Amino acid sequence: MLLSARRCMVSLFIFALQTSQITAVPEQGKENALLPTWNIVGGNGGRNTGNCAGNDLQALQGSWEEACLMARKANADLSWLEATAINTRGIGPAAPEGKKKSSDDYIEWRRILDTYIAFFGEIPFNQQGDAGVANVDVGRLKHEHSQAVEDFFRDIERDFCQSASSSRGKLLVCTDETYRFIKNGEIDPGDAQGRKIEETHPNCEGQGGVWYSPDLPERLRYSEEPPPGESGTRPLCNSRDDDMALTLRNVNAIFFCPLALDSTQTLPTANNLRTQIKSRSRWRKKDVNKDEIAQKLLNRGIGTVEDPLGNAKETLSVIFLHEMLHLLKGAIDNQAVDINGNPMNDGVETAFRATKAYGLVHARNLATHRPDLARKNPDNVAYFAFAMFFDELDWSRGYAMSKRS
To answer: Which GO MF terms are attached to this record (predicted)?
Structure first.
């Protein structure tokens, strides 16, 4: 069973100390509406039965709308970049001469292209002189970039964000609290013949049993994840690993974990705070130490969403896009690399388990050293969409700067 967990990450933006409030969300069946695009499942009640209801539902409605808007903007910006590259033979709009003011097209070109390179490590379109590139294809997006990045945003906009989009069998579940571990020797609650759990699931006898939920559809009812461990480990949402959400691609389901639905940990949307983003133009200086910037980002000195108490938060809309990469593309969370390109792990205590490329710093390092992986890494793609959404700023270094003039 493919299980792609979404861990806590360092957000790439900085806001004033305010919180976000959900305003009106799209009506059911309208553009960017959560319903009926997603099939919300679970029992009667809220998250304790797997059902997204009340505040959880409202938060997800707002975050899905914003995820759609981010995908639309990223798709439009990439289309503009490609059209401009084709029209200019891959050169782009003319740069300003001397002290002349830059044209709007040049500023836009640099904003999109530089940010793309920052998150994916490469120029995405064919250039004059590239090996094997026909003259007619100069300026067009390279196949590997079109397939991994542009097609993802286009598919979301076309198939999931239009009026009356159908669920296409995609399931949304709020938490895994409805699961109970059925131990060996106990009757399988879902078996009409009343057999014991080790009889109906013999392949799991060695681990002592199987997780079962009476409130979820048949394809989600059993989970063969390991049994409960220390700290009350759940089958899917593991609090020890700070899981925000996870995707079970083989059953077309996304689970949002309690941490993601905790308003002290996440913001449903970021758009309400748009006016609070602070430009960090002073970081443009060429002599700024890159290690220093990376350390500030890791320490949340740059790039956090904070509430009035200074608690850093995630944004559900970005998490949604991350999980959609798992669901639609089968993308995996790649192993992170350090600033020098060395593979990272989280130490001896967990037997050198690979550190996942979550968060801005890991996304940027992956783009620098492994662009072949960066364009497929969920956080790289999700963060790029976020950066395109806030187009009044230049995010080409991963934090807000005033646009180039």
So the answer is: metallopeptidase activity
Q: Which helix (H) or strand (E) holds 119?
A: helix 104-120
3-class DSSP string for 33-74:
CCCCCCEECCCCCCHHHCCCCHHHHHHHHHHHHHHHHHHHHH
Element (H, E) at 221: helix 218-221
Distance, in Å, from the CA atom of 279 to the CA atom of 107, rounded to the nearest integer, reads 16
Question: What is the maximum alpha-carbon separation in the chain?
Answer: 83
**Given CA atoms 254, 258, 263, 265 in this order, what sign does their dihedral have?**
negative
Quick one: tokens of 246?
Answer: 């996870």
To the nearest 10°, report the CA torsion of 302, 399, 258, 247: -140
Rounded to 10°, the helix 378-389/104-120 angle is 160
Residue 239: its H or E element: none
User: Domain span at residue 92?
Assistant: 4-8+28-178+213-278+315-333+373-389
For 58-88, write each residue's pLDDT tens digit.
999 999 999 999 999 999 999 999 999 999 9
- 382 within domain boundaries: yes
Q: How many domains does the chain have?
A: 1
- 309: pLDDT confidence band, cut at 50, 70 and 90? very low
Using DSSP bridges, classify how beta strands 305-306 and 253-256 pair: parallel, antiparallel or unpaired: unpaired
Which residues does residue 367 pair with via DSSP β-bridges, in sequence order?
Answer: none
C-alpha 53/C-alpha 35 separation (Å) is: 13
* Cα–Cα–Cα angle for 29, 33, 36, rounded to 5 degrees: 50
11, 244 contact by CB (below 8 A): no
Q: By percentage, how much of the chain surpasses pLDDT 70?
A: 78
Q: What is the DSSP string of 88-105?
A: TTTS-SPPPPTTPPPPHH
**Structure token pair of residue 391:** 């187009």
Provide the whole-model pTM.
0.86
At 321, which CATH number?
A: 3.40.390.10
DSSP 3-state assignment of 376?
coil
